[in-house]
Design goal:
heterodimer; A: 421 residues; 17 helices; 1% strand; B: 512 residues; alpha/beta; Rossmann fold; six-stranded mixed β-sheet; globular; cell membrane (chain B); translocase (chain B); Monosaccharide ABC transporter ATP-binding protein, CUT2 family (TC 3.A.1.2.-) (chain B)
Chain lengths: 421, 512
């Protein structure tokens, strides 16, 4: 099965027949080399990418290009960052076969703790941030204890948590809103790195950072490819490999240009990018990530393979608490204060992002990147409809239907996969 | 000519690829207790499912005559309406509902306005309970009763339906001696009331005590019907009928050179996770390097429970017993420790407990050995793929790539993935629970060849199997397990199916 750089025509023919036999089965894999198999690689996730492109294009046309304007793109990033941060944690919870209904309340209580320290007690911004993160970790450990060690379904534990921490938010805030934050704190969500290197009508620093990221991506991909060649695994043919990198680089740099011509690089995008990168690696490359998928895929088999299920479940919830705290800091910073009702129904947006992004209701399936695209899809849709002046009620209905259709697509796929056996 | 309440004529039932029943005939006289015997998988349960309408008319060939009429049942409701009630081995009671609610589930006693008349229901339930000799309040939730009493509730439920023919599938498998005796007494009592019973059981001495006739089924065919009044019909006679099959040469040759002892278990005792009874009772066995040891036992004997409790105490509650690996006592208190100690356990039900069906071969293959394939918590995907490729080659797993989803493979190939997965943990002893269940003959041969390669490489292998010919074909020694106790140990040269079956159906431990 040695197939590396070689001529592409012959392997392509062979792969096409393989693809026919095992179409979705060959998914996920490294072993494919032509563009068709790359597309059908994982219908579940490639479906969401296609849907995303279609939605972006649709709203670009409907809004006459406004939705892709530099200012609006920056807006979308700022406006949906905290949902995306929550969705990272949520997709991991969902892959393991659980759910977390409490994250909206945790966003509120962590933001409230931070606000009380920074606004009421005049502490520096970083004290507020650290306190919020500590509270988030403690809440995560609380949920993890009940789910993992007492064995209560996460639905119940986090439903209780949703009520509990909403009440705690009211206690902490004495039922009143606190604002405004100091300008330093406000920069977390609304700050930009701008003008560091100058530039006429655009921010050169932003472009440089994205340029470095693209080069690092290309280098990383190249290294991975080299390693696979060394192990005699199938890899995409070299022209295809280059084409893939060029496409990704073009999209990323176009995005960077739009940011650079607006207000520059938002700090929150840096936070988000680091989180996506770290959690992408955690889920895909680490033993912990594997164990999460194994627990969600077949709990009994995971247990009998030596996975310490309780420990893994505990840390999944600790992690969710941590990310909810990060989202709480970002949200409080963006809204420049803490409100008793902050974060209401965020859990539903995060859960929707994970499911639209291809996570399975039954567990064992899902990706961080998929959840991000799922979250952005909802974000672009809501934003587009707002630009068009669509009524709030219609927006809500559309969101609901998109979630339903996305999961229906997932169920349909699974049934088809089952019957082709 | 005797009066037959039931005649099943030339019943043939095929599943895709398998003929489960072939031209089976069964005649049951009115008012008798009729036993059906056969090995696991002989077709007893399938036959009863045909009779009770679980497999509706048209799904099988042949003719059923019940109470003088040709019947064709479309479902369980039809057969119950005709007076046939089946009580399955796994009781079908709702634990949170009361005794009375369970008895009248699906045939509720309606009063005015169509509402349930609970006074009437409880009064009738009370009467039924007395008739089966169960002194319990009808409002007690069934979950609070022991298995023996639940069995009686099932019978009371059957009686509430005007039963003419009662079918009991392994009624005493989960019962202790007292409860069994009571149940058998009750079946006799029903017989006096004119109710005909069919009883499926592995406990041959019980059959000897209670049955009027015994029909033996083997490989989906009726072998014979024995008249239990005939003094020549003994337990041994029944066993001969059950196993009387030539040992086929399905098994690859192997030279046996057992070496040092690898695993020894002494006085291993395990309690049921929720009920207060011993599932494994002071079991002791050992296996050497380069040796295949079989564990033979009928369904419910505690085979899987024994293996799983040894494998990191993943079943039941450990009571006592010692585990030695290479002569050194080992405490493997969880699965991870057991794997580290060098034990591997391939489960009986690979789909439910063995594999993550929605994931690919490579990741299933590495699931139990991620420590070996990772550095500082990061999995080396290339090493993982390499390991999976090696497994695919050495096990001859038929799949397009190691990224193929395991759920799409055939049973035999799935089983090879399971073996490959456990070999990757580099175990000293492999416990294989029903390694060839549900896979075709060709794949079975391949699995046996793999087992032979493993022992040639010095591994110790324990095989648990319901198929006696398989154990006789591949093992060096066979231990027999009955009701959680090891009842004997035979070198394969001295063993045959009759001797094993005798030990497997023995209630008490013999010396030796």
């Amino acid at each position: 099965m040695t197939r590396s750089v070689g001529p592409t025509s012959e392997p392509q023919a062979e792969d096409a027949t393989q693809a026919k036999d095992v179409a979705p089965a060959a998914a996920l894999g490294v072993g494919t080399s032509d563009i068709r198999t790359l597309m059908t690689r994982n219908l579940r996730t490639s479906g969401i990418y296609i849907a995303f492109v279609v939605v972006v294009a649709l709203f670009a046309i409907l809004t006459g290009g406004t939705s892709l304007s530099p200012g609006n793109i920056t807006n979308i990033v700022l406006q949906y960052s905290y949902i995306l941060i929550l969705a990272i944690g949520m997709v991991i919870v969902i892959i393991a076969g659980h759910i977390d209904l409490s994250v909206g309340s945790v966003v509120a209580v962590t933001g409230a703790v931070s606000a009380v320290l920074v606004i009421r007690h005049d502490q520096p911004w970083w004290v507020g941030v650290l306190a919020a993160l500590a509270v988030g970790l403690a809440i995560g450990a609380w949920h993890g204890f009940w789910v993992a060690y007492v064995g209560i379904p996460a639905f119940i534990v986090t439903l209780a948590g949703m009520l509990l921490f909403r009440g705690l938010t009211l206690q902490v805030l004495d039922n009143v809103s606190l604002s405004p934050f100091t300008p330093e704190y406000g920069k977390i969500a609304s700050g930009f790195s701008n003008g560091l290197l100058g530039g006429a009508g655009y921010d050169a620093f932003t472009l440089l950072i994205f340029g470095i990221a693209v080069v690092a991506y290309a280098y990383g991909q190249f290294r991975t490819r080299q390693a696979r060649v060394r192990y005699n695994q199938q890899v995409p043919s070299f022209p295809l490999f280059v084409a893939q990198i060029v496409v990704v680089a073009a999209v990323v740099m176009a995005f960077a240009w739009q940011l650079a011509t607006a207000r520059g690089l938002p700090y929150v995008l840096v936070i988000l990018a680091v989180l996506i990168l770290v959690y992408g690696v955690v889920t895909k490359r680490t033993v912990f990530g594997r164990q999460v998928y194994a627990i969600g895929g077949n709990l009994a088999a995971a247990t009998l393979s030596g996975v310490k299920v309780k420990v893994v479940n505990f840390w999944i919830f600790v992690n969710m608490g941590f990310l909810a705290a990060v989202a709480g800091v970002v949200f409080s910073s963006r809204s420049n204060g803490a409100q008793p009702g902050a974060g209401n129904s965020f859990e539903l947006d995060a859960i929707a992002a994970a499911f639209i992004g291809g996570a399975a209701v039954t567990g064992g399936v899902g990706t961080v990147v998929g959840a991000m695209v799922g979250g952005l899809l909802v974000g672009v849709m809501s934003n587009g409809m707002q630009l068009m002046g669509v009524d709030q009620s219609i927006q809500s209905m559309v969101k609901g239907l998109v979630l339903l259709l996305a999961v229906a697509f997932d169920v349909y796929n699974k049934r088809r996969a089952g019957s082709s056996r | 000519m005797a009066d037959h309440i039931l005649e099943m004529r030339s019943i043939t039932k095929t599943f895709p690829g398998v003929k489960a029943l072939s031209d089976v005939t069964l005649s049951v006289e009115r008012g008798e207790v009729h036993a059906i015997c056969g090995e696991n998988g002989a077709g007893k349960s399938t036959l009863m499912k045909v009779l009770s309408g679980v497999y509706p008319a048209g799904d099988y060939d042949g003719e059923i005559v019940f109470d003088g009429q040709v019947v064709s049942f479309g479902g369980i409701r039809d057969s119950e309406h005709a007076g046939i009630v089946i009580i399955h081995q796994e009781l079908a009671l709702v634990p949170y509902l009361s005794i009375a609610e369970n008895i009248f589930l699906g045939s509720e006693k309606r009063g005015r306005l169509g509402l349930i008349d609970w006074n009437l229901a409880n009064a009738e339930a009370d009467k039924l309970l007395r008739s089966v000799g169960l002194d319990e309040n009808p409002t007690t939730p069934v979950g609070q009763l022991g298995v023996g009493k639940q069995q009686l509730v099932e019978i009371a439920k059957a009686l509430s339906k005007d039963v003419k023919l009662l079918i009991l599938d392994e009624p005493t498998a989960a019962l202790n001696d007292t409860d069994s005796a009571h149940l058998l007494g009750l079946i006799r009592g029903l017989k006096d009331q004119g109710i005909t019973s069919i009883i499926i059981s592995h406990k041959l001495n019980e059959i000897d005590a209670i049955a009027d006739h015994t029909t033996i089924i083997r490989d989906g065919q009726t072998v014979e019907t024995l008249d239990m009044a005939d003094p020549e019909v003994t337990v041994d006679r029944i066993i001969r009928g059950m196993v009387g099959r030539a040992l086929d040469s399905y098994y690859p040759e192997r030279e046996s050179h057992p070496g040092e002892e690898v695993l020894r278990v002494e006085g291993w005792t395990v309690k049921h996770p929720t009920q207060d009874r011993l599932v494994v009772d002071h079991a002791s066995f050992d296996v050497r390097a380069g040796e295949v040891v079989g564990i033979a036992g009928l369904m419910g004997a505690g085979r899987t429970e024994l293996a799983m409790s040894i494998f990191g105490r993943s079943y039941g509650t450990y009571v006592e017993g010692r585990l030695f690996l290479h002569g050194k006592e080992t405490r493997a208190r969880n699965v991870a420790e057991a794997i580290d100690a060098g034990i591997a356990y391939a489960t009986e039900d690979r789909k439910k407990y063995g594999l993550n069906l929605i994931d690919d071969i490579a990741r299933n293959n590495s699931a139990a050995a991620l420590d070996k394939l990772s550095t500082r918590g990061f999995v080396d995907a290339n090493e993982e793929t390499k390991a999976a490729e090696e497994g695919r080659r050495s096990m001859n797993i038929k799949a397009p790539t190691v990224k193929s989803i395991v759920g799409k493979l055939s049973g035999g190939n799935q089983q090879k993935v399971v073996l490959s997965k456990w070999l990757l943990t580099d175990p000293d002893v492999l416990i294989l629970d029903e390694p060839t269940r549900g896979i075709d003959v060709g794949a079975k041969y391949e699995i046996y060849t793999i087992i032979n390669k493993l022992v040639a490489a010095g591994k110790a292998v324990v095989v648990i199997s319901s198929e006696l010919p398989e154990l006789l074909g591949i093992c060096d020694r066979v231990f027999t397990l009955s009701a959680g106790r090891i009842t004997g140990q035979l070198p394969v040269a001295d063993a045959n199916q009759e001797r094993l079956m005798t030990l497997m159906t023995q209630e008490k431990e013999l010396v030796g």
